Hints:
Helices cover 24% and strands 20% of the residues. The chain has eight helices and twelve strands. 42% of the residues are buried. The mean pLDDT is 95.
Amino acid sequence: MTLTFPLDQDxxxxxxxxxxxxxxxxxxAEDLAELDxxxxxxxxxxxxxxxxxxxxxxEPADTGTQPAVRRIxxxxxxxxxFRSIAHDPRIVDRVESLLGPDLDLQHGKLNWKPARVGSPVxxxxxxxxxxxTNDGVLAVLIYIDDATEANGxxxxxxxxxxxxxxxxxxxxxFAGRIAEQVLPDVEPRLLPAPxxxxxxxxxxxxxxxxxxxxxxxxxxxxxxxxxxxxYPLFYGTRTVDDEAAPRPVxxxxxxxxRFGGPPPIVPRIDGTSSLYDLQAGSAAPD
Length: 286
Ligand SMILES: O=C(O)CCC(=O)C(=O)O
């Protein structure tokens, strides 16, 4: 099939070399207004005990007014506007340029990072959380608001997507963040960009973001896609939770799983604690 929005050779080469690619302003004002409405509806429903209750996470900091949402879980299942973006050719054609024609949505989430109280995200690799038989897995992080250094834009470590890094505590349990002693000593690259821009992030690229101490929210809609021959490694209830609903996007799942890429580290973890809770629970004492 001819793609309407393929990546060009330079963009593809950049992604393969650096482990990420930022494409500015893929979505326009109308899309963003639609997403803004969807976020508002889902958050309101969740906070008032409606359909979305149980599908959000709140910031622990006291805002003095109503609780601040930091994450909407599984947005694909929560609102048609999110589903529509997950299947939008402006996103999926570009993913196909990187992963091939058979694509599955592995999972999604919306990270809010509210003004003043938004939590940080510590350094981690996505495949550290959901290892697969090969590394044909990437996340698309779509900024719904302008993302700046001040409101905690995404940061990456370039050219570090060739191996699984240990995310374990000294005792070997999954800590949800890259262990200090194996965190690559390279300058982080900040990725500020206007609303509507998207980062295509290899599943092994280390990334993080700072707390939001500014006066502007930084909401990011995230969808992880995988190639048709990349199968998840089962390691417990977390895998079951991620894989509860099939979300085919294009083409078909392969009959044979492909084993390739660096050998996965399988997380030692029981339960489905969120990234934020895992990372806070493994913070070094002050
Ligand atoms: O929202 C961010 O800053 C990064 C998100 C992320 O890495 C995640 O939720 O896995």
